[in-house]
Amino acid sequence: MSSRARALLICTALVLAVLVTAALAPLPYSVAYPGITANVLGDDKGKPVITISGAGTRATSGQLRMTSITATGPDASVHLPDIVTAWFRTDQAVMPRQSVYPVGNNTEEIAEHNAEQMKQSQDSATQAALGQLHKSPKDVRVTLSLADVGGPSAGLMFALGIIDKLDGDGAGHDLTGGRTVAGTGTIDAGGSVGAVGGVPLKTQAAHRDGATVFLVPRQECTDARAELPRGMRLIPITTLGGAVDALKALRTGGAVPTC
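Below the sequence we write its predicted structure tokens.
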């Protein structure tokens, strides 16, 4: 064998060794999928998601579905073939592990953090909804219960559910107009709606579970359009009041904002 052929063989072997190592080495990413959705106007595991005392409530039709994503766990090994596969699928997304699990080094710490974020989100949603209706939290008590879901991204849908149960559209009609409406977005006590992650996967989860309308934080319209299921209508939201107005307009045939 000539020296040139020998050098070429060695280089090829080195390249193959690097490629094999890269394929087998765990990488700092998570693979995410469409997660569960839940109707906040209904029950979850036999309990009402929203329970209100101190004020009369109304029967509702239609659904307001919060949405979520599911991701490989913080301890899971994600390799190059997993990333390549997810890259070519519309129902999967590759996300930096740090963006999925920004706090905690194990599942227990992360679960505790997500539960705390969910509690804060529920408190903010209650304050925002009662503020929107000019009701005092001293008089109206709201309890929110949703198992197996953490994080702050259900805040908008919780707040809309509270409003629908207490007041509907204010004129005797449901906010949903009888539709299945899904959405996502954080909320603060003043009613401002903030961005979340994984919106393209959440629109797919919503479509899978029968939604035809999706409420999305305005700053994430571009992401939401990326893999939007056929027949899904996007409505951009910046505030709780804007979401209520958009749903009223949707029911009556008025002007509805679009992404």
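The first strand starts at residue 29 and ends at 39.
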